[in-house]
């Protein structure tokens, strides 16, 4: 503990998420220690003038696949977390469908040991529910050790453990409810996909059936259930209704579903293969409207990198990278719809900071507030730029957004008061560590 402050930020507009113009933000020992209009009379080691920039709480991407262990040929923490930092993301929650998958309790500390030292941002894990590991979850998994327990109700190329039996899911939900752990779900009902003659992109019934089942389970068990990558109007309408009835169910949307449609997939091919699949224009517009209204609480990336070679193979895997593109993509599209910088920035701070942090019980993150980590993202909201592959950090080396134009560029990212990314360069050490869960 030093008696000097680490640093002082002034100028710019901080989005706490509420906008605060031209204030001073003081940082001490990695925490926000001061927010005010008066310049504090203290010694500090550095200062940063954020004039003309938006200052967001370090963004939180609750849905990434960093492929460690076992699939590091397409992504690892060293590359994936640099992509995060370059995109203004300072905390990630990593999915468990690795090789081996994260399905036994002792693997959690092994994984922490493996990625510590190569992670540039703070991290947490989702734990996998399979049809054989419920006893271990019951005995050894606590709400302090994992962000959630995830289940795949449908299989695809990267997810071989499917569980869609309502009785089994209900017993899992009962156990998780007692522990205060959320069940997060890839919600497509496998029996309606397997052997179905309906092309996958038109198979909305599989997603709807899964959501209906999850609403029943949440209502019965009072377990908090979180539906990942909701992609259709029908699912959202069911979920809005359930939420109004105080059933403990929440949901996310992911930016590939907000950016592309099935028509894009027909034009651009397997690079855009996704599960659940890309949908229709009407779904995309409904999701944007719901985000602006506040009916959808957050957006994640579902950063799911594969190599170009894999994507162009005979059995292309589903998924695409996106952690670095999350903020510019969502900002660009929201601004286009609201035409209001302040409103859009406030929405960003909520959708990509405060709300995901609250939902996943992440301690001391997601807001610019006293006592919170000084995780900060500095964003030039007027800057227009074109995404080229040279700026990408993901190990897979490509982006579905290549050659597209964005409004708004991350100029600096700080993790616990230390700059980790600045003006197109990574700086400092890989100092990410595991998050604490409330
Ligand atoms: Zn995913």
Q: Output the number of helix runs.
A: 12
CATH architecture of the largest domain: Alpha-Beta Barrel
- Small molecules in complex: zinc ion
The average pLDDT value, as a whole number, equals 96
Assign an overall shape: globular
Give the tags.
438 residues, Urease, subunit C, domain 1, TIM Barrel, seven-stranded mixed sheet, seven-stranded parallel sheet, 20 strands, 23% strand, globular, binds zinc ion, Dihydroorotase_CS, hydrolase
Molecular structure report:
With 438 residues, this protein is of the alpha/beta class. It folds into 2 domains: 5-55 and 372-426, Urease, subunit C, domain 1 (Roll); 59-359, TIM Barrel (Alpha-Beta Barrel), CATH 3.20.20.140. The protein contains 12 helices and 20 strands. It has helices spanning 77-86, 106-115, 134-140, 166-179, 204-221, 233-244, 255-259, 262-268, 281-293, 308-311, 326-338, 341-359; strands at residues 5-10, 13-15, 19-21, 24-28, 31-36, 44-49, 54-57, 59-64, 89-94, 122-128, 148-152, 183-186, 225-227, 249-251, 253-254, 299-300, 376-386, 405-415, 418-422, 425-426. The strands form 4 sheets. The protein has a 7-stranded mixed β-sheet with strand order 3-2-7-17-18-19-20. Strands 8-9-10-11-12-13-14 form a 7-stranded parallel β-sheet. Helix 4 crosses helix 5 and helix 5 (204-221) packs parallel to helix 6 (233-244). The longest helix has 19 residues, at 341-359. It is globular, with a radius of gyration of 21 Å. The two termini are 24 Å apart. Zinc ion is lined by residues 63, 65, 95, 302, 304.
């Amino acid at each position: 503990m030093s008696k000097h402050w680490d640093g002082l930020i002034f100028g710019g507009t901080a989005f706490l998420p509420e906008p605060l113009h031209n204030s001073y933000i003081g940082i001490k020992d990695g925490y926000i220690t001061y927010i005010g209009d008066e310049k504090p009379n203290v010694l500090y080691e550095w200062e940063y003038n954020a004039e003309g920039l938006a200052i967001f709480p370090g963004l939180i991407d609750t849905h990434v696949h960093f492929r460690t262990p076992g699939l590091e040929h397409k992504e690892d923490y060293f590359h994936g977390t640099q992509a995060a930092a370059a995109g203004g993301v300072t905390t990630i929650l990593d999915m468990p469908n690795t090789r081996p998958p994260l399905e036994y309790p002792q693997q959690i500390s092994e994984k922490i040991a493996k990625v510590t030292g190569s992670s540039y941002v703070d991290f947490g894990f989702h734990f996998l529910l399979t049809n054989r590991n419920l006893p271990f979850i019951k005995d050894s998994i606590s709400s302090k050790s994992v962000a959630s327990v995830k289940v795949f109700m449908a299989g695809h190329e990267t997810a071989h453990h499917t569980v869609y039996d309502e009785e089994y899911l209900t017993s899992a939900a009962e156990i998780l409810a007692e522990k205060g752990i959320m069940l997060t779900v890839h919600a497509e009902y496998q029996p309606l996909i397997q052997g179905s003659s309906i092309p996958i992109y038109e198979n909305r019934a599989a997603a709807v059936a899964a959501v209906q089942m999850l609403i029943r389970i949440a209502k019965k068990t009072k377990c908090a259930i979180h539906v990942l990558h909701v992609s259709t109007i029908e699912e959202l309408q069911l979920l809005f209704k359930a939420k109004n009835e105080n059933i403990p169910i929440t949901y996310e949307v992911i930016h590939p579903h907000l950016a592309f449609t099935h028509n894009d997939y027909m034009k651009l091919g397997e690079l855009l293969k996704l599960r659940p699949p890309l949908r229709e224009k009407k779904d995309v517009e409904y999701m944007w409207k719901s985000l602006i209204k506040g009916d959808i609480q957050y957006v994640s990336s579902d950063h799911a990198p594969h190599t170009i070679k894999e994507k162009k193979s005979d059995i292309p895997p589903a998924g695409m990278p996106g952690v670095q593109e999350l903020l510019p993509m969502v900002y660009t599209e929201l601004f286009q719809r609201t035409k209001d910088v302040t409103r859009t920035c406030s929405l960003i701070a909520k959708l990509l900071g405060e709300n995901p942090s609250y939902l996943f019980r992440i301690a001391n993150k997601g807001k610019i507030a006293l006592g919170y980590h000084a995780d900060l993202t500095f964003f030039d909201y007027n800057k227009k730029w074109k995404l080229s592959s040279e700026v990408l950090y993901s190990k897979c080396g490509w982006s579905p957004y290549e050659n597209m134009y964005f409004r708004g560029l991350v100029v600096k990212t700080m993790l616990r008061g230390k700059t980790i990314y600045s003006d197109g360069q990574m700086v400092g050490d890989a100092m990410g560590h595991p998050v604490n869960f409330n």
